[in-house]
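Researcher: Quick test of sequence recovery. Tokens follow.
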């Protein structure tokens, strides 16, 4: 479904995927000991994917909502779709008057972009709560043209989901 990440075999374990076909398919099962599972459930990547999957499972708009790519701005006034190689990629899923905002910093540097949200669903001064990738809330502000946005402070390659 649109907006749902694809996780390839080994991603959850941090496998490198270098080399030929056999090297890229590093084994998670020991064929010398039938039934032995080498899956590391304590791997940080595995645990974070599980947290994101929990948010997806518990948040209907992420599964069923209409998807809208969102404009971004560095100053909270001049918005547009991202371009180049360093930006925040953001989209919303909207269902039954609820908006879920998903944002990813594609850059290796921190980003502090303002991201457009639905002005009919969010009043000026209201807030959106982090479901993943942050703590607490971020305030909705209104630009001079009436558009509404939230400012997201994302770490390099940071990812956030807000309601």
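Model:
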């Amino acid at each position: 479904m649109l907006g749902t990440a694809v996780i390839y075999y080994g991603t959850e374990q941090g496998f490198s995927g270098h080399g030929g076909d056999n090297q890229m398919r590093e084994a998670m099962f020991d064929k010398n000991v039938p039934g032995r599972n080498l899956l590391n459930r304590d791997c940080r990547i595995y645990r974070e994917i599980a947290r994101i999957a929990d948010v997806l499972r518990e948040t209907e708009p992420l599964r069923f909502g209409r998807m809208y790519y969102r404009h971004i701005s560095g100053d909270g006034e001049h918005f547009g779709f991202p371009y180049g190689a360093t930006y925040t990629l953001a989209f919303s899923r909207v269902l039954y008057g609820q908006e879920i905002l998903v944002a990813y910093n594609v850059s290796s540097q921190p980003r502090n972009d303002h991201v457009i949200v639905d002005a009919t669903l969010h009043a000026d001064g209201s807030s959106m709560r982090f479901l993943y990738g942050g703590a607490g809330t971020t305030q909705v502000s209104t630009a001079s043209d009436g558009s509404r946005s939230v400012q997201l402070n994302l770490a390099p390659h940071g990812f956030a989901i807000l309601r």
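The longest strand covers residues 88-95.
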